[in-house]
Design goal:
41% of the residues are buried. The termini are far apart. The strands form 3 sheets. Strands 4-3-5-2-6-7-1-8 form an 8-stranded mixed β-sheet, with helices on both faces. It has a 6-stranded parallel β-sheet with strand order 9-16-13-10-12-11, with helices on both faces. It has a 5-stranded mixed barrel with strand order 17-18-19-21-20. The protein is an alpha/beta fold and 701 residues long. The chain has 23 helices and 21 strands. The chain folds into 4 domains: 23-237, P-loop containing nucleotide triphosphate hydrolases (Rossmann fold); 244-419, P-loop containing nucleotide triphosphate hydrolases (Rossmann fold); 483-611, no CATH class; 625-690. The protein binds one DNA strand of 9 nucleotides through residues 95-97, 122-125, 127, 139-142, 144-146, 148-149, 166, 168-170, 281-284, 313-315, 339-341, 343-345, 360-363, 374, 376, 418, 426, 430, 483-485, 513, 515-516, 520, 592, 595, 599, 650-652, 656, 669, 671-672, 675, 677. Residues 8-25 have a biased composition (Polar residues).
DNA sequence: GAGCACTGC
């Protein structure tokens, strides 16, 4: 029996379709199989003990390795033990949408209930829960949003935070919040005193039951969580994985790409059947290794050429991603060249061999320059462990680490928590909205640097979300915290409302929140560029995005099909393909547009358009994004006004060749150079006119 | 002349 689909796309039980000839018999056997499978999981034997521990302890840390069954089974144990009485729910959070969905489906099946009844999931844009839902799987970000509306999370008797070891920003903030909520719910009503903040408010005059917290982690190190929760009890649940042989090189490899290639062919020619998974750092590397594999295959005798290289990374359109899942033709061995996406987000069946060069591309943030960077850095021990585990899902496997064992010992235990390497403005705005005012003194698991906090506070103040005393500004700060957007985009919507171009800004912001709306395949670069030119505005990327979105809308209007979501998707996909637009991104932008439009309408804004007056819209962009402006230098490079950095226009910008004098931009990121992305041409005088609190002199720099 | 991975009632 394959191990559980954790974020995987396939569930073993779903594949067992009932036999139409004898539905009762096969349904019975499916139920039997499910029961057998559940009983065989390592966690099944400790059900009684786990429930006792939950009853005894308000906080419990569960360390469970892959395949223990903790994510699917523990919520069912809790349900059976009566934790969902009186309408209370058990909430289970996941860092990823796909995991919330697949696990909920699986558990509904195991409970033999319809999804959305006793068992359901809720993620952004897709909520299957109902009033009868008792086991609710969701993303951690969504629970954070829920806390803004119900600060005591009063509908939950137990909250399970799964995959806590990944230490995403959402998980870290959620854990801090849950710690506070739990204390608030323990205190008798009215004893919180007059100084209470809003996390503690709201339970006046009403009885609220205690909240149980369960932190689940696959970490080697549960101490961090245990210490954070005041020495909370940690229990270990055995995993169930097939053994994976770890092999190291004798000497350091100077060229890990070449070492990976050599290893691929060594496995292909010498090892037994089974597919190969290679972890590389990015699209470029993946595509060049793909070419090199193809080339070297040509040098092999005909009968040894049955090796099929496939690629997978997040920017790849879904259809092409799916190719990695299809079984190889008979006699062929697949070699999957993947980024980190294959570490946790997707599970490809059939992998027996993993090649791990030991590197990862990671984002980091420099608060003083307001600049992000993407650097190739050594992976952590936890990551390399996760990677090798990918070889042991279906049978014994092998993992080839392309460095000596002594190098492994030097790796960091775990990846630096994301909260220590990202822009904090959104996190801080959320905390402020939850009534937490002392950010510097806030009880983070890992405290971000003081500089990073100060920078974010300053940004929020400049955006008008905070007062000079760093209190939430009324009403702007509250409005901004309610929108599921970066604070700077929320601010843009509020300004656009005042400047009568809210319709345009809603679309623009929706597109800016997605990862690249254009699809730009290397092999059809000329065609893709021609298509981009068709949409391009000489005034910049924002106006270009506006016309892409509007044209897709018009196309849909013209084709006015009666209703069905599926049909709309199909038509949009075709349009996207013809126009080199990434359909996943466009769909996401359309969903976001709908959601944020609803939000601003609820705030009482009227969505009005500036029609053809793009000047007014660009002025609004300047007023919104004044913190990120750049001016051309004599030598043709640009200087970012805020940080003074010398920057370059990113080649994907429609302004790449036009070299305007002054622009605002949304993103400053260092990769091979310091690039600015998503730009619009502005008149530099607008900055002093529209953001006088920031640009005091008449001539910016 | 170039894009690690996630996420938000």
């Amino acid at each position: 029996m394959p191990s559980m689909a954790q974020g995987g796309l396939n569930s073993s039980v779903q594949n067992n379709k009932p036999n139409p000839k004898s539905p009762t018999a096969s349904l019975f056997s499916i139920r039997q199989k499910i029961a057998q499978h559940r009983k065989s999981l390592p966690i099944a034997s400790v059900e009684k003990r786990l429930i006792e521990e939950v009853q005894k302890n308000d906080i419990l840390i569960i360390v469970g390795e892959t395949g223990s069954g903790k994510t699917t089974q523990l919520p069912q144990f809790l349900y059976n033990a009566g934790f969902c009485q009186e309408g209370k729910m058990v909430g289970i959070t996941q860092p990823r949408r796909i995991a919330a969905v697949t696990v909920a489906k699986r558990v509904a099946e195991e409970c033999d209930v319809e999804l959305g009844q006793r068992v359901g999931y809720s993620i952004r844009f897709d909520d299957t829960t109902s009033t009868s839902t008792r086991l609710k799987y969701m993303t951690d970000g969504l629970l954070l949003r829920e806390a803004l509306l119900d600060p005591h999370l009063s509908r939950y008797s137990v909250i399970i935070v799964d995959e806590a070891h990944e230490r995403t920003v959402h998980t870290d903030v959620l854990l801090a919040l849950l710690k506070k909520v739990q204390r608030a719910r323990l205190k008798p009503v009215g004893e919180n005193g007059p100084q209470q903040n809003s996390v503690l408010r709201g339970c006046q005059g009403r009885k609220i039951s205690p909240l149980k917290l369960i932190i689940m982690s696959a970490s080697l190190d549960a101490r961090v969580f245990s210490e954070y929760f005041g020495g909370a009890k940690a229990v270990h649940v055995e995993g169930r994985q097939h053994p994976v042989d770890i092999l190291y090189t004798a000497h350091p490899e100077s060229d890990y790409i070449d070492a990976a290639l050599v290893t691929i062919f060594q496995i292909h020619l010498e090892e037994k059947v089974g597919d190969i998974l290679v972890f590389l750092t990015g699209q470029d590397e993946i595509e060049s290794v793909e070419r090199l594999v193809q080339e070297r295959l040509q040098h092999l005798p005909e009968d040894k050429r049955k090796l099929l290289p496939l690629t997978i990374f997040s920017a790849l359109p879904s259809e092409q991603q799916m190719q990695a899942f299809a079984p190889a033709p008979t006699g062929f061995r697949k070699v999957i060249l993947a980024t980190n996406i294959a570490e946790t987000s997707i599970t490809i069946p059939g992998i027996r061999y993993v090649i791990d060069p030991g590197f990862v591309k990671a984002r980091s943030y420099n608060p003083s320059k307001g600049m992000e960077s993407l650097d190739v850095v050594p992976a952590s021990k936890a990551q390399t462990l996760q990677r090798s585990g990918r070889a042991g899902r279906e049978g014994p496997g092998k993992c080839f680490r392309l460095y000596p064992e002594r190098e492994f010992e030097k790796l960091e235990d775990s990846t630096k928590p994301e909260i220590k390497r990202c822009n904090l403005s959104n996190v801080i705005l959320q905390l402020k909205a939850l009534g937490i005012d002392d950010i510097i003194g806030f009880d983070f698991i890992d405290k971000p640097s003081r500089g990073s906090i100060v920078k974010a506070l300053e940004e929020l103040r400049l955006l008008g979300a905070l007062t000079d005393e760093c209190k939430l500004e009324n009403p702007v700060g509250y409005q901004m915290s309610r929108l599921p957007l970066d604070p700077v985009y929320s601010r843009a919507l509020i300004l656009a409302n005042q400047m009568n171009c809210l319709e345009e800004m809603l679309i623009t912001v929706a597109v800016l929140t997605v990862e690249s709306i254009f699809y730009d395949p290397r092999e059809k670069r000329e065609e893709a560029r021609a298509s981009r030119n068709h949409f391009a505005s000489v005034e910049g990327d924002h106006l270009t995005y506006l016309s892409v979105y509007r044209e897709s809308d018009e196309f849909l209007e013209k084709r006015k099909v009666a209703g069905s979501e599926n049909k709309i998707d199909k038509i949009m996909k075709k349009w996207c393909k013809d126009n080199f637009v990434n359909s996943r991104s466009l769909k996401h932008a359309r969903d976001t547009y709908r959601q944020i439009r609803e939000h601003v309408e609820q705030m009482g804004f009227t969505v009005s358009s500036c029609g053809n007056d793009m000047l007014e819209f660009r002025r609004c962009l300047a007023a919104s994004f004044f913190l990120k402006a750049a001016q051309r230098q004599l030598d043709g490079t640009y200087r970012a006004l805020e940080s003074g950095e010398i920057v370059h226009i990113h080649p994907t910008s429609v302004l790449f060749r036009s070299k305007p004098e002054c622009v605002i931009f949304n993103e400053l990121m260092q990769t091979s150079k310091k690039y600015i992305k998503n730009l619009t041409i502005i008149d530099p005088l607008w900055l002093t006119e529209l953001a006088p609190h920031h640009y005091k002199s008449a001539e910016p720099v």
